[in-house]
Amino acid sequence: MKRLTGVRSKKDLVVAEIRGAILNGELAPGTRLVIDDLAEDLGVSTIPVREALQQLHADGYVVFEPFIGARVAEIKAESIVEVFTLLEAMEVTSSRIACRRLNSAELDQLEAIVARMDALTSDAEAWSQENRRFHEFICAHAGTPLIASLIAKVLDHWDRLHRHFLKEVFVDHLPIAQKQHRQILSAIRSGDADRVEKLVRQHNQSALQAYIGHSRQKKDGQIARSIGR
């Protein structure tokens, strides 16, 4: 993290900086967040840091524990399920509407996003940014602005998931996800809302199972190592 300057309120600046550090993995899950230390690092008083941690707690990035204080929220199976459940619900709605709302030019733009993703399968981080653009594009152009604003927040949590599990899960699942994007695009072009819904649900569920499966394996491995000691 860097020292802060800018015209926004100090609390907003602190929120953006700490949130960014959590999303990019600089502040790993479980990291203790000491208010005095953060204030010194960021060059602000403790007041905006305290306010920022409260905001980040409300957004699901920070937890408060008795006698310990603030920590970066752990990535648990429950939180993974929540993220994908929310994504699925919102994407089903916007994708069904997109079948009748997207015009030929917008469909071509969506096709261009998928084409760029085809060329980025060896660069997981760049591919993930286009993946986000794909899903946000559908929401934005389906005429569902409320969903678009909400899905952006949920996709931030998805970004944190994929960065945390980048090597173990995301890279292996990427070719499957890309094939599913092609199928979703084809269904939207055909105007088949029922097929789009089925594909979107499959898309989210297959990703969810990949993450949950790895999370359980990792937990079982930790237990086994603990027993071994």
Mean of residue pLDDT values? 87
Pick out the low-confidence regions.
220-229
Estimate the helix proportion, in percent.
Answer: over 70%
By CATH, the superfamily of the largest domain comes out as GntR ligand-binding domain-like
Number of helices: 9
* CA-atom Rg in angstroms: 20 Å
Task: Give the amount of beta strand, in percent.
Answer: under 5%
Number of domains: 2
Helix and strand string, N-terminal first? HEHHEEHHHHHH
Q: State the total count of DSSP E strands.
A: 3
Strand order of the largest sheet: 1-3-2
In CATH, what is the class of the largest domain? Answer: Mainly Alpha
CATH-defined architecture of the largest domain: Up-down Bundle
How many strands, which pairing sense, and closed or not: the largest β-sheet?
A: 3 strands, antiparallel
Structural class: mainly alpha
- Report the CATH topology name of the largest domain: Four Helix Bundle (Hemerythrin (Met), subunit A)
Cα-to-Cα separation, first versus last residue: 37 Å
Which of globular, elongated, flat, extended, rod-shaped describes the shape? elongated
What tags apply to this protein structure?
mainly alpha, Arc Repressor Mutant, subunit A, Four Helix Bundle (Hemerythrin (Met), subunit A), 2 domains, three-stranded antiparallel beta sheet, 3 strands
